[in-house]
Amino acid sequence: MNYVFTLFLIGFAILFHEFGHYLAARIANVPIQTFSVGFGPAVWKRQIGETEYRISWIPLGGYVLPAIEDEHQFFKIPVYKRIVMTIGGPLASALLTVICISIINTCSSGFSFFGTLIQPFQKSWAIGYQMTASLPQLFSAQSQIMGIVGIVAQGGNYVSGSILKSLQFLAMMSMNLCIINLLPIPALDGGKLLMYLGEKVHPRFVKLHIPFSIAGWIVIIGITIYTVILDVVKLTV
Protein backbone atom coordinates (compact mmCIF):
# COMPACT_ATOMS: atom_id res chain seq x y z
CA MET A 1 0.00 0.00 0.00
CA ASN A 2 2.92 2.34 0.72
CA TYR A 3 4.08 1.93 -2.89
CA VAL A 4 0.69 3.01 -4.22
CA PHE A 5 0.75 6.06 -1.95
CA THR A 6 4.29 6.84 -3.13
CA LEU A 7 3.06 6.77 -6.74
CA PHE A 8 0.27 9.14 -5.72
CA LEU A 9 2.83 11.55 -4.20
CA ILE A 10 4.93 11.47 -7.36
CA GLY A 11 1.79 12.03 -9.46
CA PHE A 12 0.79 14.97 -7.25
CA ALA A 13 4.25 16.55 -7.66
CA ILE A 14 3.90 16.25 -11.46
CA LEU A 15 0.34 17.62 -11.36
CA PHE A 16 1.44 20.64 -9.29
CA HIS A 17 4.21 21.25 -11.85
CA GLU A 18 1.68 21.18 -14.70
CA PHE A 19 -0.67 23.44 -12.73
CA GLY A 20 2.20 25.94 -12.61
CA HIS A 21 2.37 25.85 -16.42
CA TYR A 22 -1.41 26.34 -16.52
CA LEU A 23 -1.41 29.38 -14.20
CA ALA A 24 1.55 30.91 -16.01
CA ALA A 25 -0.24 30.44 -19.34
CA ARG A 26 -3.28 32.20 -17.92
CA ILE A 27 -1.11 35.06 -16.66
CA ALA A 28 0.56 35.34 -20.08
CA ASN A 29 -2.83 35.23 -21.85
CA VAL A 30 -2.01 32.00 -23.70
CA PRO A 31 -5.27 30.17 -24.57
CA ILE A 32 -5.58 26.69 -23.03
CA GLN A 33 -7.60 24.01 -24.77
CA THR A 34 -7.29 21.24 -22.13
CA PHE A 35 -6.16 20.98 -18.53
CA SER A 36 -6.19 17.36 -17.45
CA VAL A 37 -5.72 15.78 -14.05
CA GLY A 38 -4.21 12.42 -15.01
CA PHE A 39 -3.67 10.77 -18.40
CA GLY A 40 -5.69 8.63 -20.76
CA PRO A 41 -9.44 8.69 -21.49
CA ALA A 42 -11.51 11.19 -19.52
CA VAL A 43 -13.56 10.01 -16.55
CA TRP A 44 -15.12 13.44 -16.13
CA LYS A 45 -14.82 16.63 -18.16
CA ARG A 46 -16.41 20.05 -18.28
CA GLN A 47 -16.04 22.92 -20.71
CA ILE A 48 -15.60 26.33 -19.07
CA GLY A 49 -15.03 29.05 -21.62
CA GLU A 50 -12.38 27.94 -24.12
CA THR A 51 -10.84 25.38 -21.74
CA GLU A 52 -11.90 21.79 -21.14
CA TYR A 53 -11.15 20.63 -17.60
CA ARG A 54 -10.98 16.86 -17.22
CA ILE A 55 -10.14 14.05 -14.83
CA SER A 56 -8.57 11.12 -16.64
CA TRP A 57 -8.23 7.42 -15.88
CA ILE A 58 -4.53 7.29 -14.98
CA PRO A 59 -4.12 9.54 -11.89
CA LEU A 60 -0.39 10.20 -12.25
CA GLY A 61 0.27 13.87 -12.92
CA GLY A 62 -1.53 15.74 -15.67
CA TYR A 63 -0.96 17.93 -18.70
CA VAL A 64 -1.74 21.34 -20.23
CA LEU A 65 -2.64 21.60 -23.91
CA PRO A 66 -2.60 25.09 -25.51
CA ALA A 67 -5.46 25.98 -27.85
CA ILE A 68 -3.52 25.70 -31.11
CA GLU A 69 -4.09 23.85 -34.37
CA ASP A 70 -0.44 23.11 -35.22
CA GLU A 71 3.16 24.02 -34.36
CA HIS A 72 3.09 27.02 -36.71
CA GLN A 73 0.30 28.60 -34.68
CA PHE A 74 2.20 27.81 -31.46
CA PHE A 75 5.29 29.65 -32.67
CA LYS A 76 3.15 32.68 -33.48
CA ILE A 77 2.65 33.09 -29.74
CA PRO A 78 5.13 35.82 -28.65
CA VAL A 79 8.37 34.43 -27.24
CA TYR A 80 7.98 36.18 -23.88
CA LYS A 81 4.58 34.53 -23.36
CA ARG A 82 6.01 31.09 -24.12
CA ILE A 83 8.87 31.77 -21.69
CA VAL A 84 6.42 32.74 -18.94
CA MET A 85 4.34 29.60 -19.56
CA THR A 86 7.44 27.38 -19.54
CA ILE A 87 9.03 28.78 -16.38
CA GLY A 88 5.73 28.40 -14.50
CA GLY A 89 6.25 24.64 -14.06
CA PRO A 90 9.68 24.73 -12.35
CA LEU A 91 8.58 27.68 -10.20
CA ALA A 92 5.51 25.74 -9.04
CA SER A 93 7.68 22.72 -8.20
CA ALA A 94 10.04 24.88 -6.15
CA LEU A 95 7.05 26.49 -4.41
CA LEU A 96 5.61 23.07 -3.48
CA THR A 97 8.92 22.22 -1.80
CA VAL A 98 8.68 25.44 0.22
CA ILE A 99 5.08 24.67 1.21
CA CYS A 100 5.95 21.12 2.32
CA ILE A 101 8.89 22.29 4.46
CA SER A 102 6.74 25.04 5.98
CA ILE A 103 4.10 22.48 7.00
CA ILE A 104 6.76 20.14 8.38
CA ASN A 105 8.35 22.93 10.48
CA THR A 106 4.98 24.09 11.79
CA CYS A 107 3.86 20.57 12.70
CA SER A 108 7.19 19.77 14.37
CA SER A 109 7.87 22.98 16.28
CA GLY A 110 4.68 25.03 16.10
CA PHE A 111 4.13 28.25 14.17
CA SER A 112 6.88 30.83 14.10
CA PHE A 113 7.66 33.60 11.66
CA PHE A 114 11.14 32.25 10.91
CA GLY A 115 10.34 28.53 10.94
CA THR A 116 7.11 28.78 8.96
CA LEU A 117 7.78 31.64 6.56
CA ILE A 118 11.54 32.19 6.20
CA GLN A 119 13.41 28.93 6.83
CA PRO A 120 11.42 26.94 4.21
CA PHE A 121 12.88 29.18 1.49
CA GLN A 122 16.40 28.72 2.89
CA LYS A 123 16.04 24.94 3.12
CA SER A 124 14.49 24.71 -0.35
CA TRP A 125 17.40 26.68 -1.79
CA ALA A 126 19.88 24.40 -0.01
CA ILE A 127 18.11 21.27 -1.31
CA GLY A 128 18.07 22.65 -4.85
CA TYR A 129 21.76 23.60 -4.63
CA GLN A 130 22.75 20.14 -3.35
CA MET A 131 20.75 18.41 -6.08
CA THR A 132 22.31 20.60 -8.76
CA ALA A 133 25.81 20.03 -7.39
CA SER A 134 25.27 16.25 -7.35
CA LEU A 135 24.12 16.04 -10.98
CA PRO A 136 27.62 15.20 -12.34
CA GLN A 137 27.72 12.14 -10.05
CA LEU A 138 24.64 10.75 -11.80
CA PHE A 139 26.60 10.52 -15.03
CA SER A 140 29.84 9.23 -13.46
CA ALA A 141 28.57 6.70 -10.90
CA GLN A 142 26.11 4.02 -12.01
CA SER A 143 25.17 3.29 -8.39
CA GLN A 144 23.81 6.84 -8.07
CA ILE A 145 21.35 6.41 -10.95
CA MET A 146 17.77 5.59 -10.01
CA GLY A 147 14.62 5.35 -12.12
CA ILE A 148 10.93 5.35 -11.26
CA VAL A 149 10.99 1.73 -10.04
CA GLY A 150 13.81 2.45 -7.59
CA ILE A 151 12.23 5.71 -6.44
CA VAL A 152 8.90 4.01 -5.71
CA ALA A 153 10.65 1.10 -3.94
CA GLN A 154 12.79 3.33 -1.72
CA GLY A 155 10.04 5.92 -1.30
CA GLY A 156 7.54 3.29 -0.17
CA ASN A 157 9.96 2.05 2.47
CA TYR A 158 10.78 5.59 3.61
CA VAL A 159 7.23 6.94 3.78
CA SER A 160 5.82 3.92 5.70
CA GLY A 161 2.59 5.62 6.76
CA SER A 162 4.19 8.76 8.25
CA ILE A 163 2.63 12.10 7.24
CA LEU A 164 5.81 14.08 7.93
CA LYS A 165 7.98 11.63 6.00
CA SER A 166 5.45 11.76 3.16
CA LEU A 167 5.80 15.55 3.09
CA GLN A 168 9.59 15.23 3.13
CA PHE A 169 9.44 12.79 0.21
CA LEU A 170 7.05 15.09 -1.69
CA ALA A 171 9.35 18.08 -1.08
CA MET A 172 12.37 16.17 -2.42
CA MET A 173 10.48 14.84 -5.45
CA SER A 174 9.12 18.28 -6.28
CA MET A 175 12.53 19.97 -6.09
CA ASN A 176 14.01 17.10 -8.10
CA LEU A 177 11.33 17.71 -10.74
CA CYS A 178 12.24 21.40 -10.77
CA ILE A 179 15.98 20.78 -11.20
CA ILE A 180 15.65 17.99 -13.79
CA ASN A 181 13.21 20.05 -15.88
CA LEU A 182 15.65 22.95 -15.99
CA LEU A 183 18.34 20.82 -17.65
CA PRO A 184 19.15 22.13 -21.16
CA ILE A 185 17.58 19.14 -22.93
CA PRO A 186 15.21 20.33 -25.72
CA ALA A 187 12.21 18.25 -24.57
CA LEU A 188 12.46 19.65 -21.03
CA ASP A 189 11.59 23.15 -19.80
CA GLY A 190 15.24 24.21 -19.67
CA GLY A 191 15.79 23.19 -23.28
CA LYS A 192 12.62 24.97 -24.36
CA LEU A 193 13.78 28.17 -22.65
CA LEU A 194 17.12 28.02 -24.49
CA MET A 195 15.34 27.51 -27.81
CA TYR A 196 12.93 30.39 -27.14
CA LEU A 197 15.84 32.68 -26.25
CA GLY A 198 17.57 31.49 -29.43
CA GLU A 199 14.60 32.82 -31.42
CA LYS A 200 15.41 36.29 -30.09
CA VAL A 201 18.94 35.88 -31.48
CA HIS A 202 17.78 34.60 -34.88
CA PRO A 203 14.25 33.67 -36.09
CA ARG A 204 15.60 30.57 -37.85
CA PHE A 205 15.90 28.88 -34.46
CA VAL A 206 12.17 28.14 -34.82
CA LYS A 207 13.01 25.46 -37.42
CA LEU A 208 15.21 23.65 -34.88
CA HIS A 209 12.48 23.17 -32.26
CA ILE A 210 10.89 20.03 -33.67
CA PRO A 211 14.07 18.07 -34.60
CA PHE A 212 15.73 19.05 -31.30
CA SER A 213 12.62 18.09 -29.32
CA ILE A 214 12.45 14.69 -31.05
CA ALA A 215 16.12 14.13 -30.25
CA GLY A 216 15.50 15.19 -26.66
CA TRP A 217 12.61 12.76 -26.24
CA ILE A 218 14.72 9.95 -27.70
CA VAL A 219 17.38 10.69 -25.07
CA ILE A 220 14.79 10.84 -22.27
CA ILE A 221 13.09 7.61 -23.31
CA GLY A 222 16.47 5.92 -23.60
CA ILE A 223 17.51 7.09 -20.12
CA THR A 224 14.14 5.99 -18.71
CA ILE A 225 14.47 2.47 -20.13
CA TYR A 226 18.07 2.27 -18.95
CA THR A 227 17.24 3.35 -15.37
CA VAL A 228 14.28 0.96 -15.15
CA ILE A 229 16.53 -1.92 -16.20
CA LEU A 230 19.11 -0.87 -13.58
CA ASP A 231 16.39 -0.65 -10.90
CA VAL A 232 15.05 -4.13 -11.71
CA VAL A 233 18.57 -5.61 -11.65
CA LYS A 234 19.33 -3.97 -8.28
CA LEU A 235 16.05 -5.18 -6.76
CA THR A 236 16.43 -8.74 -8.01
CA VAL A 237 20.08 -9.26 -7.11
What can you see in these coordinates?
The protein has a domain at 77-236. It is built from eight helices and two strands, in the order αββααααααα. The protein has helices spanning 2-27, 71-74, 79-109, 113-140, 148-159, 163-181, 189-201, 209-236; strands spanning 32-48, 51-66. Strands 1-2 form a two-stranded antiparallel sheet. A hairpin with a 2-residue loop joins strand 1 (32-48) and strand 2 (51-66). Helix 3 (79-109) packs antiparallel against helix 6 (163-181).
Short overview:
The protein is α+β, with helices and mostly antiparallel strands. It is built from 8 helices and 2 strands, in the order αββααααααα.
List the helices and strands and how they pair.
Blueprint: H1 2-27, E1 32-48, E2 51-66, H2 71-74, H3 79-109, H4 113-140, H5 148-159, H6 163-181, H7 189-201, H8 209-236
Antiparallel strand pairs: 1-2
List keywords for this structure.
alpha+beta, globular
Could you give the distance between the termini?
23 Å
Question: Counting H and I runs of at least 4 residues, what is the number of helices?
Answer: 8
Mean pLDDT across every amino acid position: 85
| Fraction of residues in β-strands | 5-15%
Parts with pLDDT < 50 across at least 5 consecutive residues: none
- Rounded to an integer in angstroms, the radius of gyration calculated over CA atoms is 19 Å
Strand arrangement within the widest β-sheet reads 1-2
Main structural class: alpha+beta
Shape: globular
